[in-house]
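Notes from hallway chat w/ T.B., transcribed later so I don't forget. T.B. wanted the structure written out for a chain they're using in a teaching module, and asked if we could keep both sequence and structure tokens in one place. Agreed to drop them here.
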Amino acid sequence: MNAAEVVRRIEAGDLSSEELVRSCLARVEELEGAVQAWAYLDPELPLQTAIELDRRRERGESIGVLQGVPIGVKDIFNTRDMPTQMGSPLWEGFTPGNDARVVEKLRWADGIVMGKTHTAEFGVHHPSPTRNPYDPQRSPGTSSSGSAAAVATGMVPLALGSQTAGSTIRPASYCGIYGFKPSFGLVPRTAVLKTTDRLDHVAFMARTVEDMKLVFDLARVSGRNYPFVRRALDQAEQEPSGLKDWRVRLVRGPQWSEAEPYAREALEEFARRVSSLDRVCVYEKELPDTFSRIHDAHERMYCRMLAYYFQEESSHPDKLSSIFSSMVERGRTVTLEDYQEDADFQAERVVELEQEFHDCDVILTLAAAGEARVGLETRDRPDNCLLWTFCGVPSLSIPSNVGPNGLPLGVQIVGAKHNDYSLLAFAELLVTEGLATNQGPYPSLPESV
């Protein structure tokens, strides 16, 4: 069951929180040896929470919106009762003693933290031990690998991820699920591992658009203390997607030549299918040439901030991966003036992309440059995911295609900044029209490892 269905079943009295958690734990026990999604999971912790929720219901107490839905938490988010190790032996066994703000908000809604999912080292590039559930010889994508695999296999309905380049969109594509990166700043990053101030996003993984909207509603900032967000999201009129005329812009992007031919063909075929829908107009228009410089600017900003924030860790090179160490070394060569120039360039692109949305509602592009590659440590092909991260706009990976090896291959839709609900509404339209899967199918996993 997806999260929204779980909530309905529990509210109707057809399912208890304990039954739900035990079912998820049984799934973990069955598949974890093959998938290795979890960095930390103590079955007693979610079970105790579930039992207490059931007791509260018996006493007639009010229960939060999530009603005990189990959630996987990427191991860069602080958790008060579990270690937060960030994919690094330097932080093995570290327990911060507090919850990240987003984790706390989901607990307030009576979501149950199932455990901590594997992440790439410090959420960057060096991979975790997690395997792609469709083919254990292939990567699940970095860096939100454990969260993607846990959701894809039904171990949990929802999971937290993060994105600084393509760390949610790409794993979601590889694992055949939805990955959502909201607009920059809409979800608090308090007590979450920081790699770059201007690029880090909290993100979500789920198997349905309905679930994505459910968790986004609960996790984002809202209310009078956030007047701009309140005007942009809370008070904006949300026109039903079936009554709206949608302008969809097909964008290949500056890394188009790096994508596999079958991925390019799949996106173009998907665009043709979308164009056949009523009230939808699809047209092609590339981004301005200035966007071709984003990848280089992103790399310099990323490396500079890693060198700044990880000075202490860098004094233990024997416990760091070579790829992380090399990024830190590159970052040390980036001057403050270089960084400021790139930050100004980023601010200009944010404004420029906002103008590009004046004649469209949704950008349609690739979620990844191809299927998951063979080899857990194989680098991903260059793609355009980081363009939308760099500009802070919402993006959603949608499971829509299958590649030549029978592996998932998603498309990505992108909205204007703070048009997150409109983007989710368009995704719901695609599901309704049969252009996106609503849930599953689950991968066929080996019976033994």
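Follow-up for T.B.: The domain at 3-289+348-432 is CATH 3.90.1300.10 (Amidase signature (AS) enzymes). Might be a good example for the class.
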